[in-house]
Structure formats: structure tokens, C-alpha cells
Amino acid sequence: MLRGVMRRVLATSTALIAAASLAACGDKSDLPSNESASVKAGAELFSQRCAGCHTMDVVGAEGGASKIGDREIVDGPNFNVRKESKDDVLYAIRNGGFSGAYMPENIVVGKDADAVAEFLSKYAGRQAADVRDSSTNEPQDTQ
């Protein structure tokens, strides 16, 4: 009986430590204090649901590889350098990314998906060089 109690205590402790570790991922936010509630909600949701696979400094997300040699197949884009439109973010959320290979479909839905899309469309790509297509003078995708 004592062994069963000890196992439950150990299992519960392990689960709490794991949950605390995951909660700490992407917990830092450098958003301006006067940012809209929707963008703040999108940043929080991104930190909770997306930071494990994507990198974005403004929310402390370090999910993607920082060196090409460290890349894993499940690493998502680095949103410090990859700019996205709100429509493209919503497409990726609904369809499991653009390739549909590794990102879960509908990881956020409804107003939550809109908030994440609003946040990413506003803050993604802030470190990207402004590389333009010489034939159209339109920004090129750098990722």
C-alpha cells in the first residue's frame, strides 16, 4: 500500500514538474504595454501552443533550430525573419502549415485563431532583411 502511494506521489510530482517546464517555454513577452487585447491574446496563445516548434523573440519562443545543422524535421519557421500575412497564418492554422506534414491542423480555432493570426501578421518578420524581387519590386519570402 505504501508503495502505491509513493508511486502516485512520484507520478504527480513528475507531471507537475513537466507542466511547469512546458509553461515556462515562451513565457517572456516583449510586447508594448499598450498593445491591443487581441494581439496580446494571440501572443499568449502562440507562446502556449506554437513556441515548441517556432522561434519568435518577442514572446521568448525558441522552438526552431538556430543552426542549419541542428534542424529537425518538426522545426517550424523562425518568425523573427519570416513575415506572414493574416490570411496566410489562418490558412496554415487550418491546414496544418503549408505542407500539411507536421503542424497539427486547427491548433487554435475561431477567435483564438484570429488572435494568433493578428499577432503574427503584426510581429513576424521584424528581423528580416528587405529583399525585393527585381522584376516586381515586391518583398520576397526569405524563408
Descriptive account of the structure:
The chain is mostly helical and 143 residues long. It has a domain of 97 residues: Cytochrome Bc1 Complex, Chain D, domain 2 (Orthogonal Bundle), CATH 1.10.760. It is built from 4 helices and 2 strands; from the N terminus they run H-H-E-E-H-H. The protein has a two-stranded antiparallel sheet.
Structural class of the secondary elements?
mainly alpha
| Rg from alpha-carbon coordinates | 18 Å
Order of helices and strands: HHEEHH
Secondary structure tally: strands = 2
Overall 3D form: globular
Index terms:
4 helices; mainly alpha; 143 residues; two-stranded antiparallel ribbon
Briefly say what this structure is.
The protein is mostly helical and about 140 residues long. Helices cover about 40% and strands about 5% of the residues. It has a domain at about 25-125: Cytochrome Bc1 Complex, Chain D, domain 2.
